[in-house]
Design goal:
It is built from 13 helices and 22 strands. The protein is of the alpha/beta class. It folds into 2 domains: about 1-190 and about 365-415, Metallo-beta-lactamase, Chain A; about 195-360, 3-Layer(aba) Sandwich (Rossmann fold), CATH 3.40.50. It has a 7-stranded mixed β-sheet with strand order 6-5-4-3-2-1-22. Strands 7-8-9-10-11-20-21 form a 7-stranded mixed β-sheet, with helices on one face. The chain is globular. The relative contact order is 0.14. Bound molecules: zinc ion (ZN) (2 copies). One zinc ion (ZN) binds near residues 56 and 58. One zinc ion binds near residues 56, 58, 142 and 163.
């Protein structure tokens, strides 16, 4: 008999970990991440396990891979892009922890251990044998390298989606459905829909045009992983702007370009990166502020990174703007700015006169898209995780699937009906 248990990331977004048991013993762990809050929150401690599958690099899914490697030396399976971007994020998390002064449960040496003994590479379409079970890797949309895992057993097939996007974006194609008896699906957008993607892009470009035509500069705080590359592709496709790019996204872009098969259009990303000005020296920052029309910089939620420097210089002029392209989590500086019109700079709350707006460029399927995905898979059971508010999705799914489960963490449930 197969069972699963969430160690975190069930009725919450962040710190995902799902253990799979066979006849009572843990045989695999799917994702093991942290909630990248300040300080981070961690999942319940995993027992020793030989096989770990990481869906994608975002820290809420990959964040504790070095901890697992150093404790249990398991094989940690992921796509090459996920491993390489993940390693960058792990080392950055250590740096951020030391700046912010909170502990983090691994060191750079443990990231080295992860790299040298645990990283096992899997490309889309490949699979791994776990005794009598087989785990297949298929694309999840979301960000480059993001996977779903299809767990094939003698009792049935289970699909673990990780973070899922069924829409095409500039960076990756949307996920396709595949057959499964049980789907363990993320529910980030349970109860919420996205506006039409093309509309959002148009509104974003129109808003930028309005500012730039008046002589203003637009700061676009963007996540290093995925979103910043997309924003650059949108801006350079439109053309005509002097665009500057600053922060960790530069390194992530290089990893993406070294794995072109994981991109929808690697030529377009390469072209975008050639056309923008890359900030390499701190003197470039003043040049970006003086000459730039648009500055794309990390961090996406203004929780550090060069974006904070730029906002300190741009905030007092109403011609300028700060345009968010990602959801701003409760408790972050970006959320504070959206809610109050103020920003926290080195502990001091300052008013922002520049225009502030949020554009919904999500990399997650919206409510109806999650339901369409489930309709296509047509499973016997759905298990929802990765959601602050799973009930609206669970209610709508109950109309099409008789068996819908919204598990609590630490609860052990049979995987198959
Ligand atoms: Zn993600
Ligand atoms: Zn996630």
């Amino acid at each position: 008999m197969y069972e699963i248990m969430f160690l975190g990331g069930a009725k919450e977004v962040g710190r995902v970990g799902m253990l799979m048991f066979k006849e009572g013993s843990p045989i695999a762990l799917f994702d093991y991440g942290m909630k990248p809050s300040n300080p981070p929150e961690y999942p319940i401690e995993s027992p020793p396990v030989n096989s770990v599958f990481i869906t994608h690099a975002h820290l809420d899914h990959s964040g504790l891979a070095p901890w697992l490697a150093a404790r249990y030396a398991p094989s940690i399976y992921a796509t090459p892009v996920t491993h390489e971007v993940g390693e960058l994020l792990h080392r950055d998390a250590i740096k951020v922890a030391s700046i912010e002064g909170y502990p983090i449960p691994y060191s750079n040496e443990e990231v080295d251990i992860y790299r040298s003994i645990s990283m096992a590479y899997l490309n889309f379409g490949e699979d791994v044998e776990l005794g009598e079970e087989r785990v297949e890797v298929i694309p999840a949309g979301h960000i480059p390298g993001a996977s779903m895992f299809r767990i094939i057993t003698e009792h049935g097939i289970a699909l673990f989606t990780g973070d899922l996007n069924t829409n095409d974006t500039h960076l990756v194609e949307g996920a396709k459905s595949s057959s499964a008896d049980v789907v363990i699906i993320e529910g980030t957008y349970s109860g919420r829909e996205h506006p039409d993607r093309r509309e959002v892009e148009k509104m974003f470009l129109d808003a930028i045009e309005e500012r730039v035509s008046k002589g203003g500069t637009v700061l676009v705080p963007a996540f290093a992983v995925g979103r910043s590359q997309e924003v650059l592709m949108i801006l350079t496709k439109r053309g005509g702007y002097d665009v500057w790019y600053d922060g960790m996204g530069k390194q992530v872009s290089e990893i993406y370009l070294s794995h072109p098969s994981y991109l929808r259009d690697s030529k377009a990303l390469r072209k975008a990166l050639k056309e923008v000005n890359i900030v390499q020296l701190s003197s470039h920052r003043n040049k970006a502020l003086k000459d730039g029309n648009v500055i794309v910089a990390t961090s996406g939620m203004l929780e550090g990174g060069p974006a904070l420097y730029y906002i300190s210089k741009l905030k007092d002029d109403p011609k300028n703007a700060v345009y968010f392209t990602g959801y701003q989590v409760e408790g972050t500086n970006g959320r504070y700015l959206l809610d109050t019109g103020h920003i926290n700079l080195q502990g001091v709350s300052m008013p922002v006169v520049a225009d502030v707006k949020f554009f919904d460029f999500s990399a997650h399927a919206g409510h109806s898209e999650l339901i369409d995905f489930i309709k296509k898979v047509n499973p016997e059971r759905v298990i929802i995780f990765h959601s602050d508010n799973p009930e609206p999705l669970a209610d709508d799914l109950r109309d099409i699937v008789s068996d819908v489960i919204v598990p609590d963490i630490t609860l052990r449930i049979p995987l198959f009906p």
